[in-house]
Amino acid sequence: MKGHVPTPHDLAEKIVQRLFRDRQPTKSDRILYPGCGTGPFAAVVEQVCESEGWGLPDGLAIETNPEHLDAARNRGLEHVEFVEQDYLGPQMLESETFDFIVGNPPYVPIEGLSGEEKNRYKEEFSTAVGRFDLYLLFYERSLELLSSGGVLSFITPEKFEYVDAAEPLRRLLTSDNFHVEDVVHIDEDSFSGLVTFPCITTIRRTETGPTHVKLRDGSTHTTALPEDGESWAASVRGADLEDLETGTTLGDVTVRISPGMATGADSVFVADRQDVPAQLVPDWIYPTVSGRQLRSNDGPYTDSVFICPYQEDGTLPDEDELGAFGDWAELHRERLEDRSCVKKTGKRWYAWHENPPMQDLLQPKIVFKDIAKEPRFWAEKKGTVVPKHSVYYLIPKEDVPFDELLEYLNSPKARLWMESNCQKAANGFYRLQSRVLRDLPVPAEWSETYQATL
């Protein structure tokens, strides 16, 4: 199975101990190892049962990689049958149900799947929606095979708690048939050489109930997970956000929340103002800022500029209208023609990777880094800066108070919401994505003011 990531022995042992915490296995029980790899979980089960004096459950291990299966069989394990089979294939549904299911499902984003695989999965799995990952399907198949009262423990990326593509899985996990007993977040570097933000999730096939959570800082709490498929982020992170709900969101009071511009060749199109050829100033340049500059300059105004072929209305002149820009760009033509946006999508050789919405960009806006340890927002009131791709910008609707909105975005209240809902990045950073920030609650009167103006 593609996406195999070996599970360290001590981590497998921790997961197996949790699997058997509330119910000791017996010889009459059945245990399933989906995507078993080289058999680390099966080996730990034998070790734990022997040391505790428990009966060995009857095991079935499924794997598609014959080399992994050979390694697993060579362990000489007594309780398990190793089978070369597609765990996501329809034949698995012919199996009996299992009292225990444990494993480390493969992590394969949709880009790693063939067209045929994507189509088949979308037809056969309710969790195969949007930009789904293979481990979501492993969850669905395993829940189908879990017996009444049975227990499942998986280690996966924590992303299923909040990404849009995992909404069907979250809905399934909080249905009347299943109880998410606990979610334990473990060190982000638990897998050598990989930053995966893993968590161990334990589910029992029984009526739903409260969920115990342990975070990476060691803190614990009990929560009730949303049952409508909405993000678990706030519940899992222990944030009480009920007082923030106003019925109005940032998306309601802004014209646009977007990342800055990607040119596909910043080494060509971005320069220090002092290094720009005189014939390009001022007609062919716009001030710009990167995420790093935004922080170090404590604001959006820098000495960097975009050398930009686009006019203020966002149109791209024909090649014979480029004048001084065309003479300069010709010096870099080979590099510009080598970009994917030219080769694959047919853009003109001097165009940017993305068409800039100049009429939005060239007005007062609020800017912020795409990835930040502490979310912070800055005013760009001049309406002159065209941000680079590592800087997001938002444009308030007319009559929404600019300074009050900026102050609110930098407030502890808004920061708490963002830290509770935004996707995690490495080293304690957060991804401030447009689709998430649009749901940030804001004072209801701003929407009312806007509607009154209309």
Automatic annotation (TrEMBL):
UniProt KW ATP-binding keyword: no
Annotated ranges, domain TaqI-like C-terminal specificity: 342-442
Residues covered by the Type II methyltransferase M.TaqI-like domain: 74-189
SUPFAM superfamilies: S-adenosyl-L-methionine-dependent methyltransferases (SSF53335)
UniProt protein name: site-specific DNA-methyltransferase (adenine-specific)
Biological process annotations from GO: DNA restriction-modification system; methylation
Keywords: DNA-binding, Methyltransferase, Restriction system, S-adenosyl-L-methionine, Transferase
PROSITE patterns associated with the record: N6_MTASE (PS00092)
Taxon lineage: Archaea, Methanobacteriati, Methanobacteriota, Stenosarchaea group, Halobacteria
EC number annotated for this UniProt entry: 2.1.1.72
Domain of life: Archaea
Enzyme class, broadest EC rank: transferase
Keyword Membrane carried by entry: no
InterPro entries referenced in this protein's UniProt entry, alphabetically: DNA_methylase_N6_adenine_CS, MethylTrfase_TaqI-like_dom, N4_N6_ade-DNA_methylase, SAM-dependent_MTases_sf, TaqI_C
Catalyses which reaction(s): a 2'-deoxyadenosine in DNA + S-adenosyl-L-methionine = an N(6)-methyl-2'-deoxyadenosine in DNA + S-adenosyl-L-homocysteine + H(+)
Annotated GO MF terms: DNA binding; site-specific DNA-methyltransferase (adenine-specific) activity
Gene: paeR7IM_2
UniProt xrefs under CDD domains: AdoMet_MTases
Origin species: Haloferax massiliensis
